[in-house]
Amino acid sequence: MRNSSRSNVDPFIVMDVMEAARQAEEQGRHIIHMEVGQPSTGAPMAARRALADALENNSLGYTVALGLPALRQRIAQLYGEWYNVDLNPERVVVTPGSSGAFLLGFTALFDSGDRVGIGAPGYPSYRQILSALGLTPVDIETAPENRLQPVAADLEGLDLAGLMVASPGNPTGTMLDHAAMGQLIEAARAQDAAFISDEIYHGLEYEAKAVTALELTNDCYVINSFSKFFSMTGWRVGWMVVPEDHVRVIERLAQNMFICAPHASQVAALAALDCQDEMRENLSVYARNRQLMLEGLPAAGFTKIAPPDGAFYVYADVSDLTTDSRSFAAEILERAGVAVTPGLDFDPKRGATTLRFSYARGTADIQEGLARLKQFMAARG
Question: Which helix (H) or strand (E) holds 304?
């Protein structure tokens, strides 16, 4: 059978690394996982208990397309708690993970062929989802002096229909402050481009609180997820906040694309929102891991790293070590037993000379991984 040209998207390389690591483990090797952005902890205990109760007492059928009203209300309340933003819960849409939100948002905002700016390095699925929808991803090459985040001047002459930003970013962990976020919002508005803020790593910050675009404007889409801070990757539940006059547009699309997010996951998510103390205990582990990485990676020889303000990644420039990050990552896996992600996932032009290291696992794993990396680099010379 024929395939559409839109289906010709690149693979998510980190998934290939995960598979190579799995095969090594099947052969009896102990692999340290620094490749995947997945918390080593599970969903909050109260979330699991809420689901167990629902399984006993609820048929768990379809919900309304926009999500359980109680969950939408509680997410809106979160914006008051975290950012002092008074958010109308009617603007909140519960989605099948942030990926479902990207599909809904891109479909609602853009026509075929529209140009949408994304920072490079950045989350690779932005580019692939845009392409699969017949849109044109426009990589914005970010600079180290701008903390590998886009700045307003980068948008000049790009003729964008939309701009996607991420703070904290993946793979860098760097963040936009109020001024930087505001300048990007204004620059997008100046060329009549929709502004989308990916905030799925909010809550995972170490020295300053992340800024939500909703502190600065209501004329934006904000996307978030229960996967990272709430440690619920496999539950596939996220949310988006849209302007009030976009709610019905999104609702119609959601009804047809997804019907609804999984009812079971919504029940667990509602309970998870009241488990923030438990989640901050996880954050203290990441903070310790981050410090170990900031000390251990340079000691091993990975000296050119982006400042990880949030999330649980360190992005390293390894241009002094390789011009082929994919083969370098394979060598590290084979010889050191540490799985890391080649930068090609995140930056098609410069990714051949970068690696991403995740520190989302337990501290003992991070310590062991850093020791292996130091030994590997010393032997490599």
Answer: strand 304-305
Q: Which residues of the chain have pLDDT under 50?
A: none
CB 223 within 8 Å of CB 170: no
Residue 316 backbone dihedrals phi, psi, to 5 degrees:
-120, 135
Contact 114, 161 (CB under 8 A): yes
Let me know: does 167 contact 181? Beta carbons within 8 Å.
yes
pTM of the shown model:
0.95
Contacts of 79 (CB under 8 A, 6+ apart): 85, 86, 87, 212, 214, 241
Report the SS3 class of residue 240: strand
d(CA 160, CA 200): 23
106 SS3 class: helix
Position 6: which residue type? R
* β-pairing verdict for 194-198 and 221-225: parallel
Q: How far apart are CA 199 and CA 100, in angstroms?
A: 14
pLDDT in tens, 166-222: 999 999 999 999 999 999 999 999 999 999 999 999 999 999 999 999 999 999 999
- For residues 191 and 152, is the Cβ–Cβ distance under 8 A? no
Q: What is the pLDDT of residue 349?
A: 94
Comparing C-alpha atoms, which of 203, 197, 251 is closest to residue 219? 197
Backbone angles phi, psi at 233, to 5 degrees: -60, -50
26 Cβ neighbours under 8 A, 6+ residues apart:
none
CB 326 within 8 A of CB 344: yes
- CB-based contact 152:121 (threshold 8 Å): no
SS3 117: strand
Is the torsion defined by CA of 200, 350, 288, 234 positive or negative? Answer: positive
Q: What integer pLDDT is reported at residue 15 of this predicted model?
A: 84
